[in-house]
Write a structure and sequence with these properties.
201 residues; five-stranded mixed β-sheet; Dna Topoisomerase Vi A Subunit, Chain: A, domain 2; Helicase, Ruva Protein, domain 3; two-stranded antiparallel sheet; single chain; 2 domains; alpha/beta
């Protein structure tokens, strides 16, 4: 369908949907057309749920994962291995790791070092991480689960050097994750192998 043949309000929604990773013009159009076939009440409910995200969804005060409460379900669970802390760059990677056999805790770093993009150590949650490691006496191992592209490798090395002073075991993902790969695109079997075969840094 040619641009301009749709009402401007629809075009506005399509433009917003295209900002979602992996969604192009045609995919956004299909979504809008599907929504237009919904009953008005269902459409209003959907809109209200989207609008309530900023109020209902918080960041966990412990690990920075998304949560409906101050502390997320993972951090507040009594069934987790509190001796193992897994560092990820973004909260979107936690559901992927949850699909593996990993049952430890997480810490969301908030990105990876990329000086060209203005992301320096000061841009990441490093002080919160070191505070977590020093104050939580249960932590015996830290797994650095950062994507192994150039920026990710630099971040992993930086983290390893930062954390070595705290006398804890530091490991990283092993086999199954190719060099330069983003773990966001790995499947659960690959991640399970990488978790189980993690190597010491």
């Amino acid at each position: 369908m040619k641009n301009g043949s749709l009402p401007q309000e629809i075009e506005n929604i399509i433009a917003l949907l295209k900002e979602i990773p992996g969604i192009g013009r045609k995919g956004a159009e299909r979504m809008v057309f599907a929504l237009l076939k919904w009953p008005p009440e269902k459409l209003k409910t959907f809109g209200n749920e989207i609008a309530s995200i900023p109020e209902k969804i918080k960041r966990c005060t412990v690990c920075s994962n998304i949560s409906e409460s101050e502390v997320c379900n993972i951090c507040s669970s009594h069934d987790r291995d509190t001796s193992v802390l897994c560092i990820v760059e973004d909260f979107t990677q936690i559901p992927l790791l949850e699909s593996t056999s990993f049952k430890g805790l997480y810490f969301v770093l908030g990105g990876k070092l990329s000086p060209l993009d203005g992301i320096t150590p000061d841009s990441l949650k490093l002080s919160k991480l070191t505070k977590r490691v020093t104050e939580d006496q249960n932590v015996k191992e830290v797994i650095i689960a950062i994507s192994q592209d150039i920026e990710g490798q630099a971040t992993s090395i930086y983290l390893a050097n930062l954390l070595h002073r705290y006398n804890i075991k530091i490991t990283t993902l092993a086999r199954g994750i190719p060099a330069g790969a983003d773990i966001s695109f790995a499947n659960s079997a690959t991640l399970s192998a990488a978790i189980e075969g993690r190597i010491k840094l």
